[in-house]
Design goal:
6-stranded parallel sheet; Rossmann fold; 20 strands; 406 residues
Length: 406
Amino acid sequence: MTLHKTFFRQSLSNEKKRVLLGITGGIAAYKVAELAHTLSQGVVTVQTVMTQAACQFITPLTFQSLTGNPVHTDLWESSASNFMAHINLSREVDVIMIAPASADFIAKLAHGIADDLLSTLCLARNCPLLIAPAMNRQMWENPATQRNLAILRNDGIRMIGPVSGIQACGEVGMGRMVEPAELAEAITVFWQNRCLLINKKIMITAGPTFEAIDPVRGLTNKSSGKMGYAIAQAAVEAGASVTLVSGPTGLAMPAVDKFVAVISANEMLAAVQHEIPSVDIFISVAAVSDYRVAAMNAQKIKRNNHNLTLELTLNPDILMTVATAPNPPFCVGFAAETENLLENAQAKRIKKKLPLMVANWAHNAIGSDENELILLDDTGEHVLPRAPKIEQARHLIEHISTFFKQ
C-alpha cells in the first residue's frame, strides 16, 4: 500500500508533533518501519521504544536510521536522567502509539504490569495512548484477550484495528494489524479531531429499547447500537465529555465519561431528563420503540388456540421532548427510513425544530458495520458516501463542531 505522505503532511498543523512509537514482539513489527519513516518526514518527531521481544523481529538500528533518534530498550539505561527513562520519555511526547500491540502487551496494559521500559512508561504516561493490536486469530478471539480489550476501552485507550486477513501463520481471520498508511491516518485524525469539541458535554442515546409484554416477552427492533457507540467514540476523540445512554446491545462499553444502561423507552427518557440540564449537545441515535403495551401481564401469557390481541399505547418521543423544551441543547436526530428518505427526514427535522438531522436507509444500516448518511441542516444536504460507521461518526462530529465555530 502506498502511504499518503502528502496528505499526512498537509493534515497536521505547522506545530511540530511528537510521537513515541512503542514496538512489541510480533511479525508485524517489520511494517512499523514504514510507519516510522512516514511519521519522520518533516512533520513529526519520533521516539522509539522497543521491547526485548520486538528486537527479535527487527533491529533497533533500523528505527534509529529511519527516525534519526536513538532507540530505547532498557528500563535501567544509564544515559537517562536519574535513571527515569520511563518518566522522561512519556513527558516529552504528545501521543504514544503501540504497534504492533501483542496479546502479551495488551494483558500488561490491562492489569497495570510494569516490568520493562515500554510497559512502565505507558503506566506513567500523562498523554493519550493508541494501540494497534496484532496477533493470531485464536489469540484475538480468546476470552482472556477480549476481557483485556474491554478493560482498555474502559480506560480510554483507543484501538486501531485489527482487521481480518491472511496472517503470518497462514491462517485467515481477525487479528491482522492495520496497514501503516491507516495507522498514519489514524494519528492524523486523532490530532485533527482532538480539540473539535473540547469542554463540550455531549449526551448520546444508542441501541434499541425493549418494551415488556410479560416477564419473558417484549417488543423491540433490530438496532445493534453500532452507530451510536461509534459516535460516542468519535465524540471522546474530539475532546468532549460524553454520556452514553444505551438500550440493550451486545457491544462492549466504550470509554465514555458516563454510561447509563436502560431497557425501556420510559427508562431512557428518565435517564436523558436527569442529565440534560448540563448538556451542550444531544445526539439521539437510539431506535426507540414507538409503542408499548398498555398493561404488562404480571405472568407469562400462555399459548392457546385463539389469536392474541395486544393494546398498544404511544411511547414518549424523547427527541421531541428535549428539542422543544425551554433552552434546549443543540439537538441532532437520526431518521432511518424505508421509503421517501429525504422527504420523511426533512419533515421530522422541521417538526422537531432540529438544527441537524441525519438520514439513512434502514435496510442498509441496521446491524451493518458500514453506513451511508445524509446530513440535513439549514444549508442543505451533505452526503457522506458509504463507509465504516466509525468514519461516518468522525465526519458527523466534525460537522457538528462547525456549528460552534460560527
